[in-house]
UniProtKB/TrEMBL annotation:
Coiled coil: none annotated. SUPFAM superfamilies: PR-1-like (SSF55797). It comes from the Eukaryota. This is SCP domain-containing protein. InterPro entries: Allrgn_V5/Tpx1_CS, CAP_dom, CAP_sf, CRISP-related. It holds the Pfam family CAP. GO terms for cellular component: extracellular region. It comes from Exophiala dermatitidis (strain ATCC 34100 / CBS 525.76 / NIH/UT8656) (Black yeast). Residues 1-121 form the SCP domain. The lineage of its organism: Eukaryota, Fungi, Dikarya, Ascomycota, Pezizomycotina.
Amino acid sequence: MAETARVIAQTCVYGHVTNINGGGYGQNIGAGYPATPLGMGNFVTEGLYNSEVNNYVSYGSEPDTSKLNQWGHFTQIVWKSTTSVGCYTADCTATGLQNVGSGVPPYFTVCNYSPPGNFIGAFAPNIGVSIGLPTVHADYGLSSMTAN
């Protein structure tokens, strides 16, 4: 999964590509997040999870998939039957990152998931109810990593 994510990210063309190395995986992509602990933390924690978790309300049932764009990144990262995840962030400074607006830092992150999630008819058994732990943000624990 990570090697395939690397191949896709290093194209520096922002967009979903799910047919490399045989395909069959789910995918989340992000632009502008550098390959640092905080950058990756921001992408996964803030960009995919915290920004969408409260939009998903169909625990134990099938959701209205017309609203997938409001919570689909979240459901992919917590999809129960997904057993393998691989991510890669490419630094596209040399070539520029294509298909993004001006002012977006030139970093392209691709995360691939296998087996993929977000299958109609399979949400109820794959998206569990929150266990109620406090919200964690991208910078959680980073101060201890950078301390002398």
